[in-house]
Amino acid sequence: MIVHMVLFRMKKDLSRAQIEHVFRSIGALKDKIPGIVSYSWGKYSSPEGLNKGFTHGFCTTFKDAAARDAYLPHPEHKKVVDIVLPTLEGGLDGVVAFDYEA
After folding, report:
1. Which of 16, 48, 72, 88 has CB 3.0 to 4.6 Å from 94, enough for a Cys bridge?
2. Cα 87 from chain centroid (whole Å)
3. Which domains does the chain have, with CATH numbers?
4. What is the mean pLDDT of the chain?
5. Any residues with CB less than 8 A from the CB of 60 and at least 6 apart, and which?
6. Residue 27 CA neighbour count, 13 Å, CB half
């Protein structure tokens, strides 16, 4: 399995509804792209203060690397990227993605 972790530095003026729309859009990909096993998201909540300004994140688990590799260029994923990018501080500078095998 591949765990795909993504952190966002979201704009401070976004409403809760706008933030939820972003993460619902990402979560809906589970029903549109094969190979997604699980999805969860949340707001930064650690008392450590090591988030470097990243405010929200999500994890998607894929059944294997091939499923992840099919997801990244998938047209439905591209549509969601177009929803997400305008909500981030600095566009792509406001995102970090990190994948690992589990």
Report:
1. 88
2. 12
3. 2-101 (3.30.70.100)
4. 98
5. 3, 4, 6, 26, 29, 30, 36, 38, 39, 71
6. 12
56 burial type by CB count under 10 A (0-12 exposed, 13-18 middle, 19+ buried)? buried
At 11-49, the pLDDT tens digits run 999 999 999 999 999 999 999 999 999 999 999 999 999
Give how far the C-alpha of residue 28 lies from the chain's centroid of Cα atoms, to the nearest Å.
Answer: 12
Which amino acid is present at 52? K
Tokens in use for 24?
Answer: 């619902």
**Contact at 8 Å (CB) between 6 and 84?**
no
Judge whether 4 and 97 are in contact, CB under 8 Å. yes
Q: Which helix (H) or strand (E) holds 62?
A: strand 56-62
pTM of the model: 0.94
